[in-house]
Structure formats: C-alpha cells, structure tokens
Amino acid sequence: MSETVLAVGAPLSERMQGTVTQGIVSSHRKDRLTGYPLIQADTIVHPGNSGGPLLDANGNVVGITVATFSNAEGLNTGLNFFIPIADALARLNLRVEGGGPGS
C-alpha cells in the first residue's frame, strides 16, 4: 500500500479527456455486495472517469476506475475505487500476455 498511482479519464466532459490525477493506494478490499476485490486510492476521480485506467508509477495499468463517493455538495471525499486489472481481465476471460504487472 501507499504506492503512487495515476488515474486517467475525462471528468465531467469529453472536452477534459486525458486528465491525469495522482494519489496513493490506501487499501485493498472486497466490495461488500459482490465480494469482488477493489483498490481504494485517494486519487481524485469524478463522473466521466469511470472505465479509465489506474496506472502505477511505471505506467502499467493496475486498475480500472469504477466508483467515487461525493458529499452532499458533490465534492469528492477522497474515497475512490478501482477494479484490479487482473480481475477485470479475468471477468472478460482475458489475460495479460507475458506475465507483466496485473497478471
């Protein structure tokens, strides 16, 4: 944990496509409803970032943006969640060739 990560996406609008934010991994946990593994990070994400990659410091895709919690005013709370890339690929019956990160 506490590894540096970058989230790439298009927050709020396609006009902001390619926006990058930096943060750290706070926790690895399971979703309470589905049991699927999740990465929790303080990397800021907004609506529109969902489906975008979460990269490690070397530029490897380690996750996919899936959720963020906002307060009543719509401001990000710092609770952001990502599906680990290996789990996302497994659900699609795909795998990383060469055994690189996330495999």
Automatic annotation (TrEMBL):
Gene Ontology BP annotations: proteolysis
UniProt xrefs under InterPro entries: Chloro_Bact_Ser_Proteases (IPR051201), Peptidase_S1_PA (IPR009003), Peptidase_S1_PA_chymotrypsin (IPR043504), Peptidase_S1C (IPR001940)
Pfam families xref list: Trypsin_2 (PF13365)
Domain of life, per lineage: Bacteria
Family in the record: Belongs to the peptidase S1C family.
GO molecular function, one term: serine-type endopeptidase activity
The protein, known as: Trypsin-like serine protease
Keywords: Hydrolase, Protease
